[in-house]
Design a protein that fits this description.
The complex is a heterotrimer of chains A (about 120), B (about 500) and C (about 475). Chain A is mainly alpha-helical. In chain A, about 75% of the residues lie in helices and about 0% in strands. In chain A, α1 packs antiparallel against α2 and α2 packs antiparallel against α3. Chain B is globular, with a radius of gyration of 21 Å. Helix content of chain B is about 80%, strand content about 0%. By secondary structure, chain C is mainly α. Chain C has 19 helices and two strands. Chain C has a two-stranded antiparallel ribbon. Chain C is globular and about 70 Å long. The two termini of chain C are about 30 Å apart. Classes of the chains: A mainly alpha (about 120), B mainly alpha (about 500), C mainly alpha (about 475). Chains in contact: A-B, B-C. The interface between B and C is medium-sized, with 31 and 32 residues.
Chain lengths: ~120, ~500, ~475
């Protein structure tokens, strides 16, 4: 196998690391969520790509077809996509609420505000 | 017959209850259903435990698809124990939750809280009962997503940010887990845990298998808040409504710990020489770091809930430390501490909820002289605190005994010293509360707390406190279950 | 009643008494009546158990199995009997004394005081009856916890600081070293029952035994072997009855009792006699005896002087056991009894001086015997006993320890004992001299004797010190059984 032969994996890994990097590096909550989505998407690829055999078909029991692609990863990833969407939706909903509460979606500013909250608590 | 379908009912009943609560839209009805469901779940879990003890492993094929093709629910001594634990905590917390939620969440959202609560319960029970690696992921996300919502419902705005942080960290953890499972699936062609444990022998110590081990361990470590992946936990536990914090402190991390034990010992342990890998040493070092560093942070923490949250991180260190020994006593210590720490920490969070209600703050200096106003609550905190320290006669001691024994048997004297240091630190942070509540003049805030918290809050909490003492003396149930579980887990590894 | 029931009753009666006291806090007379009832029940139980044990019975009672193979269990043997007798007899007397003291000084939180006091007695008896290390450990820790509210009784900064030292040292040593020692014993031998002759067997190396012994000696912080003695002077901020019964008798004796029990029934005197790895113990205890006496000599505060004297006397017991000869072990057991009676008398006297004259320092006590003849008479008897002068009980225990040392040929120990006797005399006699022969300072405000109940209590214990000298046969019988059964 060659470098190129593994390109599916390389793409997967690239997406994975890129997603993680965005999560860590960005202080904007929405960008963090975008990173999270990219990260999760890379996993979809990780599952689906190996399930496909070149020249394979859907698993239909018939004399005609001898090479099948594995359908199970596709099914699993359907579930994972649903989970991913739910996570993203919840995350965005939280960001909306955070924006209402803090007036910003920038994590550093939120942490500043929290620090002030704590000090206020100490004074009262 | 119904008894045949108990494993399915264990998960399905809470799952169906959640939409029902949403449809009824009533806070009171929601609470009633949730409580009923929790107690039913507890009944089912106990019935399953008894069945397992008498008749051995129960295997249940969902939709009659035989394993390994279909999803298998598989109950053995380990997860029967976890099922009882989770449903027990939920059954005790819910009677308390009614007034606690009423005080902390706007009334138009109450039914949503209970819907999310049962959904979270469903997810946790599902994680514990299923024998399918991907199914675990699904239930993990069910419990996590509902957990994020529950935490975000906390009173202060910091709860929102804590929930968001937890969401990011939790999702990364779950995704890591699913990457690991994917790699294993590629290598073994199966998702059924039992089948995987058999087939992993054919692929052996290959790079993808090791990578899968790494991904799964790191992913689950995020969910169990293993030091240093714990940063989401203090915010989440101190921001959440207290009933939620009490429930999650007792269950969420525990179930993920169970899954970690399953994978490391039940699957990888079948083929890999665990002692030859750096995994267990790393785990031991991180556990010790958790026990010392998190306890130290707790000693200097200003808020009682954050103090307890850091104490949780330290106590999780005890559990993972026990795993790293790979001997019967260490494993027993881990499993029994799942239980002991769950009841202790849940009791503490429930009591702190009452303090918050009466005093309006959980800053330690606001609690000066509190014992004069709330003697029972404070006494409860002290007794549960003694269990955290590991004083004999409390549940925490049983754990500590086995941990020290395991360390002595392996000849790890530095670990013995670390365990001892950690108990001292625990004594230090528990005694900060004691000195504040008992040996200081009444503060202005404490004086607000006119009286003891309401009986409906106090009773379930004190019940758990009593359990802390009971399970420190009569250990036939807790320790017996843990020993069986440890034997099952170790039976699979080399 | 069967001996089993008596043991159970002796431990539960103080607990019930504590609960009753807590509920009866509105009426002091009822409350004190309850305290006395509980004390009377305990005394009756302990006395009821004595004839059987002297006749060779070893009643056993298994309550609940905590860990597989280790139960919460009681088994009464001679040493435990002696210790239980000391606690059971002195509790009613010190209750009498406490009532006078607490009322005379108008102390707050008297109900809490009496309740915790009763609980402490329950834990002490639990320690005395314990059949294995786990039971002992359990009651040992509980004893620390229930005496904490007594030490921090005044709830001020000083009490808080003292409480930290007290709890920090006692829990710090026991939760670490003692727990590790117990677990290690369990791991090496699979047996932590107190067994005559010890449980070690032959497979354990010399070095391991030495290490284990060190873990036990320093883990049992209540025995106050230097350098873990600081908690005892710190605990002196408590009201004097606490110092008298708990920090001269119950708590500290629980420490040395545990040490003796561990050496006799876990290690086995014969098993470790002559081992090179246990040689260090006489030296470290000898050092404690001398050093603590020197500190006592330089303490002007009477309670502090008595506290350091206690530290020194506790090490007598540990030293006696460390000599590992039958005679010295008898001496150790006797010294637990004689020191208890003598030291409680001294503390009673100190408390009554504080109550009547509000004086705490030795330098203020010139001529005080004229105003407080009973108090100083009792003090003198207690002091003579600790110096070891007949006809006071302390003479006998010291005699046996010296015999043991001579038998074992420990010249250094003999020298230590001689030096310490001189030091004892040096820090007690000036107090007596000043009280009787110096003229009182002029600005002394007039005061009389302490309240009657305190005097009565003091006279009883002082008489006890003398009576014990003539009735030494009785504790001696029990102490001999300890040696013959091992």
């Amino acid at each position: 196998m060659t470098f190129a032969g593994h390109y599916g994996y390389w793409v997967t890994m690239l997406l994975m690391v890129a997603g993680l990097y965005i999560i860590v590096a960005s202080s904007n909550l929405i960008k963090k969520l975008i990173g999270l989505a990219i990260f999760q998407t890379s996993v979809y690829l990780l599952y689906i790509a190996p399930g496909k055999l070149i020249g394979g078909t859907a698993p239909i029991v018939s004399e005609q077809f001898t090479v099948y692609s594995n359908p199970l990863p596709h099914v699993l990833i359907l579930t994972a996509i649903v989970v991913g969407i739910a996570t993203l939706a919840l995350g965005l909903a939280l960001v909306v609420r955070i924006h209402e509460a803090y007036g910003t979606t920038d994590e550093d500013e939120i942490l500043d505000a929290q620090g002030k909250d704590d000090q206020g608590g100490a004074r009262s | 017959m119904i008894s045949e379908h108990l494993p399915a009912l264990q998960v399905v009943i809470p799952l169906l209850a959640a939409p029902l609560i949403v449809l009824l839209r009533g806070g009171r009805a929601g609470w009633l259903i949730a409580t009923l469901i929790s107690w039913t779940a507890l009944g089912i879990a106990v019935a399953l435990l008894i069945q397992v003890q008498s008749a051995g492993v129960i295997s249940y094929a969902i939709g009659n698809w035989p394993p390994p093709w279909g999803i298998e629910y598989r109950v053995d001594a380990v997860n029967a124990f976890v099922l009882v634990l989770v449903s027990l905590i939920s059954a005790v917390v819910l009677p308390y939750a009614r007034s606690s939620i009423a005080a902390e969440v706007p009334s138009d959202r109450h039914y949503l809280v209970y819907a999310m609560f049962v959904l979270c319960l469903c997810g946790l029970l599902g994680m514990a009962i299923t024998g399918d690696a991907f199914n675990i992921f699904v239930f993990l996300e069910i419990s996590s997503l509902s957990g994020y919502v529950l935490i975000a419902l906390g009173r202060s705005r910091s709860a929102l940010h804590a929930a968001f942080q937890y969401l990011i960290m939790g999702t990364i953890g779950a995704t890591f887990y699913i990457i690991g499972v994917g790699l294993l699936y590629l290598m073994t062609g199966t998702l059924n845990l039992v089948d995987m444990a058999v087939r992993i022998a054919d692929v052996g110590e290959t790079r993808p298998v090791l990578a899968a081990l790494a991904f799964i361990t790191v992913g689950l470590s995020l969910k169990i808040a293993l030091f240093p992946l714990h940063i989401w936990l203090p915010g989440a536990y101190s921001g959440a409504p207290t009933a939620v914090a009490a429930f999650m402190a007792g269950t969420a991390t525990k179930v993920s710990l169970y899954v970690l034990m399953r994978f490391v010992f039940g699957i990888f342990g079948m083929r890999l020489d665990l002692l030859a890998l750096p995994l267990l040493d790393t785990l031991a070092v991180l556990s010790v770091a958790a026990m010392i560093v998190a306890s130290l942070v707790a000693v200097f923490e200003r808020d009682l809930r954050r103090l307890l949250a850091y104490s949780s991180v330290a106590q999780i260190g005890y559990i993972t430390l026990g795993l790293s020994f790979v001997n019967a006593d260490g494993m027993t210590a881990s499993v029994v501490h799942l239980f002991n720490h769950a009841i202790t920490k849940t009791a503490l969070f429930m009591l702190v909820g009452g303090i918050l209600l009466r005093v309006g703050s959980d800053r330690l200096d606001a609690l000066a002289g509190l014992a004069r106003r709330m003697p029972l609550t404070c006494a409860g905190v002290v007794v549960a605190g003694l269990s955290l320290i590991g004083v004999p006669g409390t549940a925490g001691f049983i754990t500590k005994w086995h941990l020290v024994l395991a360390a002595v048997q392996n000849g790890y004297w530095w670990v013995v010293a670390a365990i001892a240091t950690s108990s001292l630190l625990a004594a230090a942070y528990v005694w900060r509360f004691v000195e504040m509540a008992y040996l200081r003049p009444l503060s202005a805030e404490s004086a607000n707390g006119r009286s003891e918290e309401p009986l409906a809050w106090l009773l379930p909490a004190l019940l758990l406190v009593a359990a802390c003492v009971y399970f420190g003396l009569d250990t036939s149930q807790s320790l017996g279950g843990a020993r069986d579980a440890a034997a099952v887990l170790l039976g699979g590894s080399k | 009643m069967t001996p089993q029931n008596l043991m159970l009753l002796a431990v539960t009666a103080p607990v019930l008494g504590a609960l009753a006291v807590a509920f009866a806090h509105r009426s002091p007379n009822v409350r004190e009546g309850l305290s006395f009832t509980a004390a009377g029940v305990v005394l009756a139980c302990v006395l009821g158990l004595t004839p059987g044990v002297m006749g060779g019975a070893r009643p056993e009672l298994q309550l609940i199995e905590i860990l597989p193979g280790v139960a919460l269990a009681f088994r009464l043997e001679p040493l435990g009997m002696l210790f239980a007798l000391v606690a059971g007899v002195l509790w009613p007397i010190s209750t009498l004394y406490s009532i006078g003291y607490m009322r005379g000084n108008d102390e707050d939180h008297q109900s809490r005081f009496f309740a915790c006091f009763a609980l402490a007695i329950a834990c002490t008896l639990g320690i005395a009856f314990s059949a294995n290390l786990l039971t002992l450990f359990l009651f040992y820790e509980l004893l620390t916890l229930v005496t904490y509210p007594l030490v921090t009784h005044h709830q001020d900064d000083e009490a808080r600081k003292a409480g930290r030292v007290y709890l920090g040292i006692l829990m710090g040593t026991s939760l670490t070293l003692m727990l590790i020692a117990i677990v290690t014993t369990w791991s090496m031998t699979g047996n932590i029952e107190f067994t005559p002759g010890g449980v070690l067997g032959n497979g354990i190396s010399n070095a391991a035994i030495g290490g284990l012994l060190a873990l036990f000696i320093f883990g049992i912080g209540k025995a106050a072997v230097m350098p873990i003695h600081r908690w005892l002077p710190a605990a002196m901020v408590a009201p004097t009855p606490v110092s008298a019964l708990l920090h001269a008798v119950a708590v500290v004796k629980a420490g040395v009792f545990s040490v003796v029990k561990v050496v006799v029934y876990i290690f086995g005197v014969e098993r470790i006699a002559g081992l090179s790895s246990v040689d260090w113990l006489p030296f470290i205890t000898g050092f404690t005896i001398i050093a603590a006496s020197v500190v006592a000599l330089n303490s002007d505060n009477l309670k502090r002087r008595l506290a350091y004297s206690t530290i020194s006397q506790l090490s007598y017991v540990v030293l006696a056991v460390a000599l590992l000869t039958p005679l010295s072990v008898i001496g150790a057991a006797l010294h637990i009894v004689t020191h208890a009676v003598s030291k409680i008398t001294l503390f009673f006297a100190a408390g009554s001086i504080y109550t009547a004259a509000h004086k705490t320092n030795v330098s203020e006590m010139d001529g005080i015997a004229r105003r407080m003849p009973w108090t100083m008479a009792a003090f003198t008897v207690g002091a003579l006993s600790l110096v070891g002068i007949p006809p006071a009980a302390g003479f006998f225990s010291k005699w046996y320890i010296i015999l043991g040392a001579a038998e074992g040929g420990h010249l250094v120990v003999l020298a230590v004992l001689a030096a310490s006797t001189l030091l004892n005399a040096a820090y007690f006699l000036p107090v007596i001299y000043a009280a009787y022969f110096r003229t009182p300072a002029e600005d002394a405000h007039p005061h009389g004797e302490a309240p009657l109940s305190m005097i009565v209590a003091m006279v009883i214990t002082a008489t006890g010190v003398l009576a014990l000298f003539f009735g030494m046969e009785f504790p001696l019988t029990l102490a001999r059984q300890l040696v013959s059964s091992s």
